[in-house]
Amino acid sequence: MAQVARKQSMLLQFIVTFFVFLSCLNNGNAGITSTFIRSEWPATDIPLENEAFRVPNGHNAPQQVHITQGDYDGRAVIISWVTPDEPGSNKVQYGKSEKNYEFTAEGTMNNYTFYKYQSGYIHHCLVGDLEYNTKYYYKIGSGDSAREFWFKTPPQIDPDAAYKFGIIGDLGQTYNSLSTLEHYMQSGGQTVLFVGDLSYADRHQYNEIGLRWDTWGRLVERSTAYQPWIWSTGNHEIDYMPDLGEVTPFKNYLHRYATPHLASKSSSPLWYAIRRASAHIIVLNSYSSFVKYTPQWSWLRDELKQVDREKTPWLIVLMHIPIYNSNNAHYMEGESMRAVFESWFVQYKVDVIFAGHVHAYERSYRISNIRYNITSGDRYPVPDKSAPVYVTVGDGGNQEGLAGRFIDPQPEYSAFREASYGHSTLEIKNRTHAFYHWNRNDDGKKMATDAFVLHNQYW
Ligand SMILES: [Fe+2]
Predict the structure, then answer these.
(1) Which domain holds residue 367?
(2) Start and end of every Purple acid phosphatase N-terminal domain (predicted)?
(3) How many angstroms is it from 321 CA to the middle of ligand 1?
(4) Closest by alpha carbon to 398, among 256, 195, 199, 239?
(5) Are strands 103-106 and 229-231 parallel, antiparallel or unpaired?
């Protein structure tokens, strides 16, 4: 009897497999909407007093330490930190061996208020003239409260320089955020491309808004003190709150996070470009003007002309609002920027565009909609070999939770989509090939859920 039952079950399995196979054939190149069932922590922020936000020991000890690239080509870093009680020292001591700090750089200090919240003393220090491919140790603060960290400079700009980027978006400060951060830190990524929406402090009220910018800085320090995070801004950085008398957009963000915008001749820290190893990275701001003749538009037009694919074959663009998104959340919000910039992205053969905003993961095929105009009927995106791949990684794990409702049926341009928390990595091997992975938190550290080989658009 048992044998008969087993045979019947094998037959049933065979039939099911056969039909799954058939349906795959029928769909051809159709995209995948993953139905993975995930476990997740509640989408609430970690309590203020939690160990994840631990304040370092010692009077006025530097906290919220973070670094970013400080120049165009990767020979400088900007080191930033906050001293809570008094201004303290602006100095960074640094050198190439541990505890042996041969050099000193002097930074600047500022503070600000937001409603009745009074910020700590925020320090930014440019450390330049570094050697490529070198580990540097650095020390900030003084006496018993001093703290020491390290970072590695990238290889010299070279078309075949290998480098591994992480991509994180919409991170926030929940246990899901911490899980994403810890998974990223196990990935071997060397620099984070952050696609906007940092702290979600604006989901809190009154003085807690400022405090939640502080806790976020302490949460991410475990990574940001040791490797550059390349910042772009999202709607949760705007902090436009007329009810509290706060009407200067990006006030919290701009005091705390510096970018090397002058090195790429940008007039605003909110949009800029850097070159790192074999990549040219363009950071756009979805929430500053970008229509024709605005500063961001003019800057991008000029910056794209600077891109030299012979030196930096990989052209990557970061923005917050995705241009191609088939989730119900934020559907069509990227349309205005698509109408203005998409033809440039195709003309300059951008390799990949990373965005956030939608709290899910999605990847597109290479498609464009540049033939569309309001009098022609060509209004549907079509396959386009010169177009970028569009990736949405707004799935860092913030307190707004996941965006689980996708538009059905899945549009033809959408290759893979899933509402789970995670991060991506882009591992550039040489001028022609890069390995891309999306890593779902639930799968532990080595499991890539969506992966493909990215072929360079120029070489
Ligand atoms: Fe957003």
Answers:
(1) 157-196+270-455
(2) 62-153
(3) 7
(4) 199
(5) unpaired
User: Measured in angstroms, how far is the CA atom of residue 398 from the centroid of ligand 1?
Assistant: 10
Give the model confidence (pLDDT) of 286-312 as tens digits.
999 999 999 999 999 999 999 999 999
**204 lies in a domain?**
no
CA of 357 to the centre of ligand 1 (A): 4
Indicate the number of domains in the chain: 1
pLDDT digits (tens, 9 = 90+) for 187-229: 999 999 999 999 999 999 999 999 999 999 999 999 999 999 9
One of 123, 330, 357, 359 is an active-site residue; which one?
Answer: 330
330 included as an active-site residue: yes
3-state secondary structure 132-163: CCCEEEEEECCHHHCEEEEEECCCCCCCCCCE
Give yes or no for a contact between 255 and 112, defined as CB atoms under 8 angstroms apart: yes
* CA 163 to ligand 1 centroid distance, Å: 28
- Does 181 reside within a domain? yes
Q: Supply the DSSP string of 295-320, one letter for each residue.
A: HHHHHHHHHHHH--TTT--EEEEE-S
Q: How far apart are CA 167 and CA 189, in angstroms?
A: 9
Residues with Cβ within 8 Å of 187's Cβ and at least 6 positions away in sequence, in order, are 164, 166, 423, 425, 439, 445
For residue 425, the cross-strand partners are 166, 437
Domain assignment present for 429: yes
Q: What is the DSSP letter of 56?
A: P
Ligand 1 centroid vs 334 CA: distance in angstroms?
12
Q: How far is the CA of 330 from the centre of ligand 1 (A)?
A: 9
Its pTM stands at 0.93
Residue 223 in domain: no
Q: How far apart are CA 189 and CA 423, in angstroms?
A: 11
CATH of the domain at 394: 3.60.21.10
